[in-house]
Design a protein that fits this description.
mainly alpha; two-stranded antiparallel sheet; 60% helix; rod-shaped
């Protein structure tokens, strides 16, 4: 059988077929490894997408809760409560009363809230926002 084999270019036909098969198998192995890498990238990206979708759903639920809370603030009773609390407003024949605490410390001539004698007539009132801002400006910022 060896007599029927012709040699072209120094390699026998059998050797050329073996080299072709080896190169073909190497190409298939490289293709499999690169496809495995792509598949692993796809799986990692899908996991990332799921994670981001869960985050998105969480923030959507938070947004819905905040919108519901905002809508509840437009309720008549909520508006009235906020007006009473923040702006010291009354309804109908109601009257506002202010309690001003100006106690003196027994050991020193200063008031109990830490203001000196010159500030005793300028006491912060919890319900009078604009007066409090004016006192803050006069005492702290204006200097």
């Amino acid at each position: 059988m060896d007599k029927n084999v012709k040699e072209l270019g120094g390699l026998s036909r059998k050797a050329k077929i073996n080299i072709f098969i080896a190169i073909f198998i190497a190409f298939i192995v490289i293709a499999v490894f690169s496809s495995i890498r792509q598949v692993s990238n796809i799986v990692a990206n899908r996991e990332r997408i799921l994670e981001l979708e869960q985050k998105l759903n969480y923030y959507r639920q938070e947004n819905i809760k905040l919108l519901a809370e905002e809508k509840s603030l437009y309720d008549e009773q909520a508006i009235e409560a906020e007006a009473r609390k923040q702006f010291n407003m009354t309804k109908g024949q109601e009257t506002n009363y202010f309690v001003e605490l100006t106690g003196q410390d027994e050991n020193s001539g200063n008031s109990s809230n830490g203001f000196s004698a010159e500030y005793t007539n300028k006491v912060y009132v919890e319900s009078d926002l604009w007066q409090n801002i004016k006192i803050l400006y006069e005492n702290e910022i204006k200097d």
